[in-house]
Amino acid sequence: MNCSKIIGARVYPADTESRSARDEMGHGTHTASTVVHGASLYGIAEGDVRGAVTSAKIAVYKVCSFFGCSYKDILAAFDDAIDDGVDLISLSLGPAPPGQFFEDPISIGSFHALANGINPHLKFFCVAPWILTVAATTFDRSIISKLALGNGKTFMSNVINTISSNKKKIPLTSGARARVPPCDIQSARSSELIFRACFYGCLDPNFEIGQRKDLAM
Length: 217
Fold this sequence. Notes:
The chain is α/β, with parallel strands linked by helices.
């Protein structure tokens, strides 16, 4: 990331343990970076990555941590950005599905921003008419990998695999089978998405394939 583009940074931690505005997960760096040359995943799809427009100056408002994104922190960041006089606010966060206009902090904060002459751009789910929703990432190539199953079936898909199997057979399972609380609430749609995506902290490190057959795939 070109650090000369950063002109300021604020942090609004939901937890009191981390007071650093530094990116902990890579997502903020990805969406705010100006130009990264030779970016790749272990040499796969090497090329240049561009985030914010080259001439832009970036003020960072970090509102999320591993513990989530606090409503009060999001609204505080909007207020500070408005007070700082930014020209555009770009967010890459939000609830899925979006909340009601009068309850959703992003809808409320972005409405205040627009009322102050600031254009809010959102890179996530949004239905508020005063927000422009844009694609988070575009990619100009396809990476195709082959998956051969033990039953003889072969599938070709857009998949990235950086680990060699050395032609050994590797067993497969579902994230739903290996999940652990608090990712075990089947009634909540958000939890369903979390454990099927093998989200951080949702997989049992002691799980072995063939166990816990009471859990559906």
